[in-house]
Amino acid sequence: MYKGQFFESFSVLEDTREQGKVRHKLIDIIFIVVSAVICGCNEWKEIKVWTQMELNIVWIKKYIEISNGMPSLSTIGRLFNIVSPKQFEKCFIHWMKSAVKLEEKDIVSIDGKTMRGSIGGENNRGAHIVSALCNSHSLVIGQVKTDEKSNEITAIPELLDMLYIKGCIVTIDAMGCQKKIAEKIVSECKSDYVLNVKGNQEGLLNDIVECFHNLEKEGKIENLNLAYKISKSNGKPLEDEQLSMLKTVEKGHGRIESRKYYYTQNISWMLDAKKEWRGLAGVGMVERETEINGNKSKETSYFIGSISSVKEFEKAVRNHWKIESMHWNLDVTYRDDANRTRKGTAPQNMAVLKRIAYNSVKNDTEKHPKESMKGKRFIASMDFKYRDYLMDLNFKNR
Known about the structure:
Blueprint: H1 5-10, H2 26-38, H3 44-52, H4 54-60, H5 73-82, H6 85-99, E1 107-115, E2 127-134, E3 139-146, H7 152-162, E4 169-172, H8 179-188, E5 192-197, H9 202-217, H10 220-231, E6 238-239, E7 244-252, E8 255-264, H11 271-276, E9 282-292, E10 295-305, H12 310-319, H13 321-332, H14 346-362, H15 373-382, H16 384-396
Parallel strand pairs: 1-4, 4-5
Antiparallel strand pairs: 1-2, 2-3, 5-10, 6-7, 7-8, 8-9, 9-10
Helix pairs in contact: 2-3, 2-14, 5-14, 6-14, 7-8, 15-16
């Protein structure tokens, strides 16, 4: 019982309850709730039903001591309303730091999401959670809460302070395209960055647009496109002394999406930007054309990076969508937006619980690798051997 880094990481969480009246260990309640969420429970009332089922009680006793029986719904609710969210987040990050070994040049994507069901409680804006996702494992490695989306600018540095991401490439959307954030990534995290640039950095955006406009006037972009058609490089980069290009095409479900990635390190003329943006090594442009049932659409995005190749640029931009996929899964599979937990710190703590469960199910790449997240959770609710496999994989073996 109580074996594995999960129990070690969360056992240090401060229990502020009056100890003379405590009938259930804090770590026990955390493990029970995470297990219930893994098995498909998304709401407190569903968790209550799960904890009352005799088969689940027998199964739980294999992993933890519950000498006083299963905790009541009110006990669970009160606990997660008094647990320090900051401490809970730090325990989660500590656990993932020990459990997940990031690869060299791994992509770490950072983005925020509002739990819409929490809007209307003590904080009318709802709980806005900023998460970090690693590409190599597609797992959440950290999160912090902020009061609203505009506060991501201050929440992202706080999250970066808690992550160990040396040698990785950090990707953030336009909200996080800030000089201080770039400085922290390069100087303190010892990592690289690829940051999306939009209108909130108007001067920088204009410089990048002008850069690629000049390359187009000089025929550099056209020459690389012609070379690509002749060589049929099949996903391999093409380059000259000023510009690199890589093209990808993805097909499926009646959808064709082609992307052209352009990256140039010929930015010596961007004197002010190179002074103000720590580590700035190049600027990038992505032209994305999508065709669905004969209808075509096209959009262009711009980026800055401290990276040194178009291949790294393409990998960073392409894999940033995984954090959007994670948010979609939390909404659709874990009913994140529908959850109406609003009181106190419960919404923020529920967000951590769901990300623990998300990682635990996502981590199965062998037993049911082709099964959906929803399907894996359903199997875990019915098949105790599979549930044991998930527990061993996530809580005992790491």
